[in-house]
Each structure stands twice: as structure tokens, then as C-alpha cells.
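dude i think i finally got it to work??
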Amino acid sequence: MNPLQVNLVACKDVPFKTEPQYKPVFAIFTFVDGRNFKTIEMPQQKACKFNHKHVFLLGHLDHVSLKEMLATKIVGVELHDCDEYLDDPKDAEIAKFSAGRAKFTFRDFLRKNCLELKLRSDVFPLKRDEVDNTNNLDLNTTARKSENAVERGSPYLVHATSSIIIANLARPIGFFNTELELLEFKRKQREIKRLEGSDPDAPAEEISPEQQEEEKKIETPPVAEWNINDAIFERLVIIIPYKAADMVNQIERSYERVNLKGLDLPNARYLSTKEFSEEER
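look at this
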């Protein structure tokens, strides 16, 4: 079934409220196909560590449509920290409060060697109501007065609120085998012709030995082995504060240790004096 486990780790730097009328904080994760889950509720606080895990089964989905959704759609985390307690139950059912949304992409799962994603995204404010002003002119102030959307600035940007998720895919998403799908289509067509004939109990159409051998090859395609030359190593960008000299020194020492071990050198001074071969470089 190829399970995809999504761990909504936390929402950090949340502009929490101290007033008693505000409800606890929770978040809603929405997958590319519309499926979603809601986290547990936590008290109003700056760092909400949900660590809420949910599993989506991807194996039963069509591979082509799944790949298209992963390539063109985003997943979202909707943060609810401004919901209020209302005395009237009817108002509480239809009330829509301000919320924020963080957007992520799972496009990297289309690469066969990528089975884990650790992502962080800023939370941006959402309007309370989506208002359709298609038929309203800009000068129609009467229609604009009836809008219930929140126009004021949200504190998410001021507090740099962010959301963190970790996604783990059990196996790479299957590939679309055109020959196998065409073979299955031909089999169904032969079965339909047999059932539409005068004798439904007639045996299936005989297939030549050459065609049977060809179908066996298509049915059992060779398993693609993992290639060490695939693009699994990519560029890493490290952004360090200007005054963090100790951190820079630690990173440089780590590089030196790796190079000394890989090149079998006793001292870091050899790194600047030794002439390396093409393989060593």
C-alpha cells in the first residue's frame, strides 16, 4: 500500500493569546488529493510541539495522477490560534476566525532515491472569508462595506511564525509501464469479444507461443537496481551568523577530518601541499 507517514512536528513562534476567550491552538494538514487530518489541541503558547503523525496510503492511487498531483499541487498546514469561544451555539457553528497557512511541496518524492523530507515553511495570514468581488466595481463602496474579511495585518509575519513537517515514504512511487498497460488492454478486448460471441462458454482465444513469450517478458520486467551514480548528493548551503566564529571553525574541522580520513593523510598541512590525482579530487 506504500504508506506515507507525515509528522506535523511543530508550529513555532506562534503569536499566542493570554485572553481567556481564545480556544487552544491546533493545525490541519491537507494532502495533495484533499485528504487531511487535525492535530491535537494545545494551550496557547509560543512553540506548539504537536508531533502528530498520520499515515496516507498511496499504493491504491493511480501512479500517473499521483505524480501529476505531487508535481503541480502543494500540501498545506492551516494554523488555528485565533478561534474564540462564543456563547451562541448557532454563531459558533458558522463562525470563521482568522488563521494562517504554511505551504509545502512534496515534489521531491518523484525522485526514486528520495524517501524522506524534512521541511520548514513560514506561516502566512488567511482572510476570514473569501469574498468574490468579480461583479463589484472598485468604486462600489456599498458592496465593500458588507465584506467580513479581515483586512488588518496579521502578527504571523511580525513573529516569523513557521511550521515544520517530516514526511517518510515507504517505497518509491511506481512507474507507468506503457507496454504492460497495453497488454492488459488487449486481454480485456479479447475477453469482451469472446463474451459477445454466440457461445460465451467457448475457450479463450489461443495465443501463439511467440506472443506468449513476449507477454511473459512484459509481465515480469527486470527489477531496476539502485544506481550509485544517481543524483542523491546535492549542493548544501549553510548560512551562518557573521559573529559565529566557533561554528565556522567546527565546520572546517569536520571537513578536515573527513578529507584526512578519505585521503589517508596524517596531518591537515598535507591538504595544502599535496598534489592530488583526479580520483582524489
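Residues 178-196 form the longest helix (19 residues).
im so relieved honestly
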